[in-house]
């Protein structure tokens, strides 16, 4: 899991593979705004 910067500051990501990541915002209730993002 890595904290993101720039436009995605405040969100975290987990790599699925070299192309895809799960991006989410972590809150006290757990993950929110979960997306699967194509980084290429």
Structural class: mainly beta
Overall radius of gyration = 10 Å
What general outline do the C-alpha atoms trace? globular
Largest sheet: 4 strands, antiparallel
Number of helices: 0
- Work out the helicity level: under 10%
Stretches with pLDDT under 50, minimum 5 residues: none
SSE order, as H and E?
EEEE
- The termini sit apart by 19 Å
Number of domains as seen in the coordinates: 1
| Mean of all residue-level pLDDT scores | 94
Strand ordering within the main sheet: 1-2-3-4
What is the number of strand segments? 4
Fraction in beta strands: over 45%
What can you see in these coordinates?
With 40 residues, the chain is mainly beta. It has one domain. The protein contains no helices and four strands. A hairpin with a 4-residue loop joins strand 2 and strand 3.
Layout of strands and helices, then pairs:
Layout: E1 2-3, E2 12-15, E3 20-27, E4 30-38
Antiparallel strand pairs: 1-2, 2-3, 3-4
In short:
This protein has 40 residues and is mainly β. It has strands at 2-3, 12-15, 20-27, 30-38. A four-stranded antiparallel sheet has the order 1-2-3-4, with no helix packed on it.
Keywords:
mainly beta, globular, 40 residues, four-stranded antiparallel sheet
